[in-house]
Amino acid sequence: MQRELFNDDAYLRQAAARVLHHDERGLVLDATIFYPTGGGQPGDIGHLVLEDGRRIEVTDTRRDRGTHQIVSTLTSGGPWLVPGTPVGLELDWPRRHRHMRMHTALHLLSAAVPAGVTGGNLTDRSGRLDFDAGALRLDPAELTARLQAMIAADRPVHVRSISGDELRAQPELIRTMSVSPPLDAPIVRLIEIEGTDLQPCGGTHVARTGEIGAIRVGRIENKGARNRRVALDFLEDGP
Hints:
Elongation Factor Tu (Ef-tu), domain 3; 239 residues; alpha+beta; ATP binding; 4-stranded antiparallel beta sheet; Alanine--tRNA ligase; 6-stranded antiparallel beta sheet; 4 helices; metal ion binding
């Protein structure tokens, strides 16, 4: 079993681990701070540090569909690491922190728009959600003002959990129309923005909305008869 340390502490930037196995797919560790691509959030990058001081770049992180293990892709030309090898993990923190800020901002956006979410993704500079908005009028300036007020309120962000059966009995918590959370799972992770939003999510988030920083709705596009795409941009590098 891998310990997914980012679930316990999204702010953890360094950690120690040991190699479980290393093959053509990549590197599997007994513990990792690197978040794997998922839920619209890109996989983390960073470095491994070997005992002799050598540094190996981690260029991507994904979850293997067959084993569900988190696999880190390493830069080409590095050494093959045998099971049991101790390594230090160093996260590209500025990039991850921007992901955390944008991901939390998208949760605020989903709370601000009273419509089902049909898709979305994010980078460390921007993000977007698609809504089944129908005839709902969406104005960029109005949405920006609502988001800025939510951010300025500096509301706490909590990680909670619920059983799949409990979530099935509360379908209003599920905002995404295209992808369903694992309703058969014994535990489903929830992200709560106090007094604002509560929904299933496996991504990494900031601890308070004030940490998101200045953001705006950059554009709203029609993507079909009912679908509206709302894009967010950072206005500054942030905290």
